[in-house]
Design goal:
single chain; 246 residues; alpha/beta; TIM Barrel; 10 helices; 9 strands
């Protein structure tokens, strides 16, 4: 009963577009039963249309997909209204990409949309590790401002998985107990093991970030690491089911 906690569907301005049939085929190849899906940044930059496409993908997914809404906090009240609309469509969380939308995750401009997530009791997934915009301590600062909200950070809160990046990730996790990590792209199994040993298995979720990574490899990061059966179950499906109300 493996749940992929982050994948992408729809058109992408960066050339990594993915379809529902393609996503489901990739999940089947990896033995993944369900997935959380977020919109790519679309060629037209219109995130409302991308959110509609994710809602349509969820409807076409045969009960296997759970959707996230994507907004640009720089749009202010319009972004908050779009998040409300997308959640009313049945999407179950907020996805923020500071690098692609070009905003700093710790800036006050983000608070308006996170407040909507707090009011609607949905999690916030943050594309993390990008220099100047969503580094570990920046993501941690936002999570500390909203302790009632569950934040889920991609890339293990860092892109390089080495040096001070690991230290910053550990500091952010220690200061914000409502901050969780995704395993996608984290090639250091010892880092994943360290997160579980220090903070508990409830702070880590399996994700592939398909189509950017291959679910067949990404699921192995959890299966090959030194986790016991209970920890593996939490990482592979239990935590995602809890966080995203699956």
């Amino acid at each position: 009963m493996t749940v992929d906690a982050l994948t992408f569907v729809g058109e992408s301005i960066f050339g990594r577009s993915s379809t529902v049939p393609g996503l489901l085929a990739a999940l089947d190849a990896a033995g993944v039963v369900r997935a959380v899906v977020a919109p790519h940044k679309p060629p037209g930059y219109h995130l409302a249309a991308a959110n509609d496409a994710v809602a349509a993908a969820v409807a076409a997914g045969g009960g296997r997909l759970t959707g996230l809404a994507r907004v640009d906090p720089l749009q202010g009240a319009a972004a908050a209204a779009e998040l409300e609309r997308a959640l009313d469509l049945g999407l179950r969380g907020l996805f923020l990409h500071p690098w692609e939308e070009t905003f700093r995750i710790a800036d006050a401009v983000v608070d308006r949309v996170v407040a909507v997530a707090r009011e609607r009791s949905v999690p916030v997934v943050v594309a993390s590790g990008y220099p100047w915009l969503s580094e570990a301590l920046q993501v941690g600062a936002l999570a500390e401002r909203f302790p009632q909200v569950t934040f889920v950070a991609t890339n293990g809160l860092q892109l390089n998985i080495s040096g001070l990046g690991q230290v910053d990730a550990q500091l952010a996790l220690a200061d914000a107990p409502n901050l969780l990590l995704l395993t996608s792209g984290v090639y250091r199994e010892d880092f994943l093991e360290g997160v579980v040993r220090r903070f508990g298995c409830e702070r880590l979720l399996y994700a592939s970030a398909f189509p950017y990574f291959d679910p067949r490899l990404e699921v192995r990061r959890v299966q090959w690491a030194a986790f016991d059966e209970e920890e593996q179950a939490a990482l592979l499906h239990g935590n995602a089911e809890r966080v995203f109300s699956i």
